Amino acid sequence: MMNLSNHEYFNVNDGRQISVGTFYCIGRNYSAHAREMGASVPDKPLVFLKPRTAYIPFENATLTCPSFSNEMHHEVEIAIVIGDDIPLGVQNGFEKYIAGYGIALDLTLRDIQSIAKQKGEPWAISKGFAGSAPVSTIFPMESYPHCTFSLNINGELRQKGDTTMMERSFEELIAYCHSIFHLKAGDCILTGTPEGVGPLYSGDVITAEIQDVLTTQCTIA
Ligand code: MG
User: Fold this and answer.
1) pLDDT for residue 5
2) What residues have CB less than 8 Å from 130, skipping those under 6 apart?
3) For a FRET experiment, which of 67, 101, 182, 216 has its CA 20 to 30 Å from that of 13?
4) pTM over 0.85
5) Could you list which residues have their CB under 5 Å from ion ligand 1?
6) Distance CA 1, CA 130 (A)
């Protein structure tokens, strides 16, 4: 029997707990967000990683901007959690390996990331710092979700997305990540953010929602 702290497993709506693995995060999967960042949709998925220590349970979390940054941005995203190791060589039909989906934040230190972009350096610090990936309870799925999701700050709508706006489908993203990294149980795909990203301030109350599925809330320290 595993003995894990609640920062080490995803909670599934059916009571299961899944030990957290690696986060594979997709950039620029919603064209309006790519444009607001002065970028375009890339020819191949843009992938970056967060370590397992990025995870924090979303519900009632207190999120802290690290001392080495002055600009932590929200990016609300649909998270897909892998439930079973995917055999090598599998190229499609990934639904049966998925534990479920939820809502997450890809917290980003925009000041640090801007410098990294200018210098051509990795995004590991700006995107992968401890606590940079709050994830909600995971809901099992029978097929890939079609959903609308949103993020409110202090009751004001800031981001709204719909999975029909994704440039690449969940299946395509999982296939691409598996072909390169080999996905295992507990790995989590963050599937990109819609437009409307922006800074978070001390005292902000963040509410994230997948319409008709779940609502969760956290605050900024
Ligand atoms: Mg993102």
Assistant:
1) 79
2) 53, 54
3) 182
4) yes
5) 75, 106, 193
6) 26
30-76 residue pLDDT tens:
999 999 999 999 999 999 999 999 999 999 999 999 999 999 999 99
The pLDDT value given to residue 148: 98
**Of the candidates 35, 33, 3, which has an alpha carbon nearest to the alpha carbon of residue 19?**
3
Token representation of residue 182:
């080999």
Amino acid at the residue 148: T
For residue 15, report the distance from its CA to the centre of ligand 1, in Å.
Answer: 28
Cα of 194 vs centre of ligand 1, distance in Å, is 9
